[in-house]
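Suppose a colleague, Dr. K., hands you the sequence of a protein chain of 132 amino acids and asks what its three-dimensional shape might be. Before reaching for any lab equipment, you can write down a predicted structure in token form. Begin with the sequence itself:
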Amino acid sequence: MTQLWKNQAFTIAHADDSKFEGAGLRPFFEYRDLGIRDATKGKYGAHVIRAVPGMESPAKWHSHDLDFQMVYVTQGWVVFEYEGQGEHVLRTGSCVLQPPGIKHREVRHSDDLELIEIISPADFATAEEEAP
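The predicted structure, expressed as tokens, is then:
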């Protein structure tokens, strides 16, 4: 039986123990799960996302039905556009808190893009949106 502390299990994810998979929200990205979903029974999720070299974003507007979404860029750069906020270039060391329901789109990114995304809950709905 797994020991829990305040309904969370202890977990560690090492880069050499897990692989990137293409079965994520966007086909032009690969995702490496960090084990947070299982450790928190889906209350939170965290993964490393990296670009698939040579693939581009279709730059479609969308929104997410979630409570929390934070992105921290660890390598490369990405351009996001946000409803009422315009385009922003996030580069290595940049962090953005995307408020729940904000319309946004990923416009373009470098082939070496890698970022960490933390979300709550781990499973959430995404809706396509018209441009604001």
